[in-house]
Write a structure and sequence with these properties.
Elements lengths: L22 H7 L13 H9 L12 E4 L2 E4 L5 H6 L10 H11 L4 H4 L7 H26 L15 H9 L5 E3 L5 H7 L3 H8 L17 E2 L4 E2 L8 H18 L11 E6 L6 H13 L3 E7 L2 E2 L2 E2 L20 E5 L3 H17 L3 E6 L17 H11 L2 H6 L9 H21 L7 H4 L19 H7 L3 H20 L2 E2 H15 L3 E6 L13 H9 E4 L3 H12 L4 E6 L9 H13 L8 E7 L15 H4 L7 E4 L3 H13 L3 E7 L7 E2 L13 E4 L3 H5 L3 E6 L2 H15 L3 E6 L2 E3 L3 H11 L2 E8 L4 H12 L9 E5 L8 H4 L6 H12 L4
Parallel strand pairs: 3-6, 6-7, 7-11, 10-11, 13-14, 13-15, 15-16, 16-18, 17-18, 21-22, 21-24, 24-25
Antiparallel strand pairs: 1-2, 4-5, 8-9, 12-19, 17-23, 20-22
């Protein structure tokens, strides 16, 4: 037995002994949930377990302090006292406790549990070697950081090595691992080259990401190690998306995946697990029975803050109860317990569904080497933990380690770490031009009409789609195509047509949306779920960041997700995910493409009457995110052709549609044709006579501005004036060539901008024109942008904020009167 008696105990444990032994308190001491499990396990079995458990007694209240095998009574410090001091005791859990919980909560039978009772000497040595590799690697990183070889932020994992030992032991090469910014050891355990990891930290071209990621962004496509994400908890929905990709693989290729037992594993701290993303992903994992393991690294510190100071419940392993997701807590000070429990939990995820494994640890370093660590109790805790709760020291002192060549293992890993340092030192830095090369996976000028569908796509679609549902979808598509050819299709239906055509063409295309079954607000995802099923057509909870995050995980694993935003302003909830989508191709050194299309209605029309929250210029908010291609379509042909191109693009694209024109604006669409997503459109060309007489102005606009300008064009022409009306279909990258060609004719430009004076799209366009076309201007650029004030509901006030066609007329006249 792992813990036979107090006299043989190695390590340090404090446990408050209750005066009365109840069923609930027994479960509490065993790491169970009072009330939930207590009603399941017979009281007789609990009492038998308690009678043989050295840390439980029916008399007295004291704290036990085991140090180096010596028992010391310390009645002054209880668990509550430690919490008040900003410190924690090691959990009082042994294998019999864990076994019982696996039986009750996970449904393991006695015969099944026997296979986990023992860990072979060879596997224990491998686990120890991995722990030492992680410790020595992190120590080398710390030294290199102090010497200035590693820069920026770095987060070390010392004290938590039982977790990578588990990963190396139970996680297979095909499994997908998604971590956060403290991921060096997780990458090592997943099989990523120590040389490449160290070189990445040293910002060298030989690094995992060619020096583009650094310490917080380790990725390796070959070993399915998918980050390294810097924003707390953003990795959770990405991992859910990775798990969905496994299910999608099985759905699309049932014969080729009949023996597939892959899982996705995601790492999160107990502090980060208080984030709402955790609940959302538990819900998603339960709803779709995702093969997803949540490993909660419970070191008691949310950054450096003592987690109990900010979290009412630190038993993260119990969070899944509401969703039917089982959980268990294990003492990360015991590598052997962690391996035994982890093997069982991983097998559960492979065969049955999602689970939570909370590993209680102590982190020996601060959040990063630069942190002062003034938080209460931190310095005392570190000093104690290094002496008494080090998983490496505890294993070395354990009987299980007897007879193992620990010195040989340590010598071996030191050689590996030295080699990684030598490799990093000798590797060249990446070339400067690499940064620009990694901006987009596909060049903006790509012709998407030439991009073929995957091999065997039609056969896969027909084999995995209900024939009756497919026939209904094809009839709907044919009807929309007829409307497009007759010039009677709306913007909304044009996008729906593009989505369905691409989903029929390419079975790796999937769709996520709120209210998807009902077609959302504008029918953009209409018939997606009814035709292709719930995996390819996912109706989502109302949190844009959550389902966009899942789409990112799918995009990294071979799929082409389409995310419809019911209103693009709702994407404010997904700003973190949009930012990461834009950065991923570059941050991974070009390893992971991000074929992600976001489409939705938004913008601000005159007399919109939607109020401030629904009238924000979200397109301007995201202009500064690198790696995004941003478009705006104010006509059915643009909406249709650009949607198809964006779906086929291998990078993240965002298409904005005019919310007040979705159903009323109708026209033609070139069926089957993709449209460029890097070009403007000269919608109306000023007459040669007006140009020759200096009576022409270039007007740049997009979204509702196109309709506004078209509505006042006759008024402008009635005065003998004219305009080059250019629709800015590509907001980023901007088509400066078309703008320059027009300015070479008119020498005057006004911008009807559906964003604010400060930080708006018009500000960017104006700056570029002044920088690149200044020699063509006869007057300054005239910006007709929204005021910085929030957009009011009442039209009497809104007119002072939102610009419209009448403002364009005035601007054109002012140019002629030399008022500009």
């Amino acid at each position: 037995p792992r813990y036979p008696s107090p006299a043989r105990e190695v390590g340090h444990r404090r446990t408050a002994r209750p005066k009365m032994l109840s069923l609930a308190s027994s479960y509490t001491a065993f790491g169970f949930a009072p009330g939930a499990a207590a009603a399941v396990l017979p009281a007789r079995r609990v009492m038998i377990a308690a009678a043989s458990h050295p840390a439980m007694s029916a008399t007295g209240t004291e704290t036990l302090d085991f140090t180096g095998g010596a028992l010391r009574n310390n009645k002054d410090l209880t668990d509550t006292d430690l919490t008040r001091m900003g410190r924690r005791a090691r959990p009082n859990i042994d294998w019999s406790n864990l076994r019982a919980r696996l039986e009750v909560e996970f449904g393991f039978k006695e015969e099944e549990l026997k296979q986990y009772d023992d860990v072979s000497k060879a596997d224990l040595l491998k686990g120890y070697e991995m722990m030492q590799l992680c410790r020595q690697f992190e120590n080398a990183c710390n030294q290199a950081y102090m010497q200035g070889h590693i820069r920026g932020f770095m987060h070390l994992d010392n004290g938590q090595e039982a977790i990578p030992a588990l990963i190396a032991d139970a996680i297979k090469p095909g499994d997908k691992a998604v971590s956060y910014y403290r991921e060096h050891t997780h990458a090592l355990a997943k099989g990523v080259s120590p040389d490449a990891i160290m070189a990445e930290l040293w910002a060298k071209d030989g690094g995992t990401c060619r020096g583009t990621g650094g310490s917080m962004h380790i990725y390796d496509k070959e070993t399915n190690f998918q980050g390294g994400w810097a924003l707390v908890c953003e990795q959770l929905p990405y991992a859910a998306g990775a798990a969905r990709s496994i299910l999608l693989d099985r759905q699309l290729d049932p014969d080729g995946t009949k023996d597939d037992d892959r899982i996705a594993v995601v790492f999160v701290g107990e502090g980060g697990a208080q984030n709402g993303r955790m609940a959302e992903c538990l819900n998603a994992a339960a709803k779709e029975n995702l093969p997803l393991l949540f490993i909660v690294i419970d070191n008691g510190r949310a950054i450096n803050t003592f987690t109990p100071d900010v979290a009412a419940n630190n038993d993260v392993f119990e969070q899944g109860q509401h969703y039917g997701v089982p959980g268990i807590r294990v003492d990360g000070g015991s590598m052997e317990q962690t391996l035994k429990t982890g093997r069982a939990v991983v097998d559960y995820v492979r065969t049955k569904g999602p689970a939570i494994m909370q590993v209680h640890t102590y982190r020996f370093q601060g959040h990063s080497p630069a942190d002062p660590e003034h938080e209460r109790g931190r310095k005392d805790e570190k000093k104690w933990a290094r002496a008494e709760a080090d998983p490496i020291k505890l294993f070395e002192a354990d009987e299980a380690a007897s007879g193992l060549d620990l010195d040989g293992a340590l010598k071996s890993v030191k050689a590996v770490v030295k080699q990684s340092l030598d490799f990093a030192r000798e590797s060249p830095p990446p070339p400067a031009e690499l940064a620009k090369e990694l901006e987009f996976p596909d060049a903006p000028s790509t012709d998407y009409n030439a991009r073929p569908p995957p091999a065997g796509a039609d056969a896969i679609t027909r084999a995995t789609t209900d024939p009756e549902a497919l026939a209904t979808c094809e009839a709907h598509v044919a009807e929309l195509q007829s409307l497009a050819k007759r010039g009677e299709i709306s913007i909304a239906d044009a996008v729906n047509l593009a989505v369905l055509e691409e989903m029929l063409r390419d079975p790796t295309t999937v769709c996520h949306a709120e209210d998807l079954q009902a077609g959302s607000s504008y029918n953009i995802p209409k018939l997606t779920q009814q035709t292709f099923g719930k995996l390819r057509g996912a109706d989502e909870i109302i949190d844009e960041g959550h389902f966009l995050g899942k789409a990112i995980g799918e995009g990294m694993n071979g799929y082409r997700p389409i995310v419809e935003m019911m209103n693009t302003n709702f994407a404010i909830y997904a700003m973190a995910e949009i930012s990461s989508a834009g950065n991923t191709f570059a941050t991974t050194g070009g390893q992971f493409q991000m074929p992600l299309t976001i489409v939705g209605a938004g913008g601000t029309a005159p007399n919109q009457a939607l109020g401030a929250e629904h009238s924000q210029p979200f397109h301007a908010y995201i202009m500064g995110i690198p790696g995004l291609k941003i478009g705006a379509a104010a006509s059915p042909d643009a909406a249709y052709g650009m949607t198809k191109s964006m779906i086929r693009d291998n990078g993240p694209c965002f298409l904005f549609l005019p919310v007040k024109m979705m159903k009323e604006t109708k026209g033609h669409a070139a069926v089957g044709e993709c449209m460029p997503i890097n070009k403007c459109k000269l919608v109306h060309k000023a007459s040669d006579d007006a140009v020759a007489g200096g009576r022409a102005v270039t007007v740049l606009t997009y979204l509702h501005g196109l309709k506004e300008c078209q509505s006042v064009l006759p008024e402008i022409q009635a005065e003998g004036l004219d305009i080059d009306l250019i629709e800015l279909r590509s907001l980023k990258p901007l088509d400066m060539e078309t703008i320059r060609d027009s300015l070479a004719r008119t020498h005057k430009v006004a911008i009807l901008d559906e964003s604010t004076n400060s930080g708006g799209v018009g500000a960017t366009v104006s700056a570029l024109i002044h920088e690149q076309c200044f020699d063509l201007l006869d007057a300054p650029v005239k910006r007709l942008c929204m005021d910085d004030a929030p957009v009011p509901y009442a039209s009497s006030m809104e007119v002072a904020v939102v610009k419209r066609g009448s403002d364009v007329v005035k601007a054109v006249f002012d140019f002629m009167l030399k008022k500009i």
